[in-house]
Hints:
Low-confidence stretches: none
Shape: globular
Oligomer: single chain
Bound molecules: shikimate-3-phosphate
Helix content: 55-70%
Structural class: alpha/beta
Amino acid sequence: xxxxxxxxxxxxxxxxxxxxxxxxxxxxxxxxxxxxxxxxxxxxxxxxxxxxxxxxxxxxxxxxxxxxxxxxxxxxxxxxxxxxxxxxxxxxxxxxxxxxxxxxxxxxxxxxxxxxxxxxxxxxxxxxxxxxxxxxxxxxxxxxxxxxxxxxxxxxxxxxxxxxxxxxxxxxxxxxxxxxxx
Length: 182
Ligand code: S3P
């Protein structure tokens, strides 16, 4: 298995539920960058955005990723916030230090999962139609970067367990084929 695993994907794709389950299955530690930042700021992400601004959040997020993937740190699974992979430096660092797994999910399913949530500052529109267009707009910009991942696994119509099994199946396929050719 890879030394580290980083899970990326849009809000609601399942990173924070699949990550811990995958870590348990693989005997690795799990780190959710949003959770760590909320502890550091002592407030939810939505209030970090409101009180400190998105720029401050992104700067802290970038520093945290660099810290967690610092030299010699292995055996970690890290779930990044939905926008973290937009930063080129973070993308480059993550790609060199971890296997990157993109949890994809249909826009329809993302809307179903996100429409009643209130803790996503970039998805805080009021009407359903506005949330749908926010999801579409952000996904359009971000998908090209998400698709730079090493593995793409859909969580649409999949349970956490099914997703974890699919990830481990794909990791074994890639990892064993690398081992057998080395
Ligand atoms: C963000 C996604 C959030 C959180 C912040 C910004 C984004 O994380 O980092 O609200 O830019 O899409 P989740 O993907 O866990 O919702």
